[in-house]
Amino acid sequence: MIVSLTRRQMLDRWMLAKGFGPMRTDATVTRSDGLDLEAAMEADMRAWYLRILDTAPAHMLPLDNIAPRITIAVISDTLAYLSPPADCRRIISLRLHGWHNDALIVGSSTPQARREDNPISRGGLWHPVALLDPGGRISVRALPGGTCRIEHLVAVTDPGPDIYRFDESLFPEFQSPCP
Predict the structure, then answer these.
(1) Where are the domains of the chain?
(2) 69-121, pLDDT tens digit by residue?
(3) Residue 27: per-residue pLDDT
(4) Taking the mean position of all CA atoms in its chain, how far away is CA 148?
């Protein structure tokens, strides 16, 4: 089940999972010159979260259709560039209006990407290929005739440092114990 936690909820659970329980309030001496434990834990927690956004199976993360937020630059009748927004971490599926299937999404230095340079070996409308450049831009060669419109572009997005959304099984300590 996908959970949605605020930064504070996530930090509390993260610290508890790492062995740092609630602070004792019955002490008679208090010090405030030590290490900011919460800040150190929050940096570790954020790095873990970004890593699962980039590597976890797609069905364990909330997916968003970001097609309305995509900028398309049609360069020629056989080349267009799509620019995802900054919060896009990973593209899961892409389909342009007129394609018969979702695109195969590959890196720009793969053998499939090199085949896209040749009009004979190019994927076409039945087997489109989207090339993901290192900077995050997507290029497509199999353009349907007419206007270039995105039917859907499903992606894993980062909602920012104040919201954490993921399947609770990615972090087993979050599961409630069985009665």
Answers:
(1) 65-157
(2) 998 999 998 899 999 999 999 999 999 999 999 999 999 999 999 999 888 99
(3) 64
(4) 24
CB 166 within 8 A of CB 3: yes
Contact in structure between 139 and 133 (CB atoms under 8 Å): yes
Total-model pTM: 0.82
Asked if 157 contacts 88 with a C-beta cutoff of 8 angstroms, the reply is yes
Cα separation, 179 vs 177, in Å, equals 6
Strand ranges (DSSP E) for the chain? 2-6, 63-65, 71-76, 79-83, 88-96, 104-107, 129-132, 138-140, 150-157, 163-167
Task: Residue 164: name the closest of 174, 178, 154, 149 by CA.
Answer: 174
Q: Write the pLDDT tens digit of every residue in 18-50.
A: 877 766 666 666 666 666 778 888 999 999 999
Positive or negative, the CA dihedral 13, 16, 18, 24 is positive
Q: How far apart are CA 143 and CA 122, in angstroms?
A: 11
Q: At what angle do helices 37-55 and 7-17 cross, to 10 degrees?
A: 100
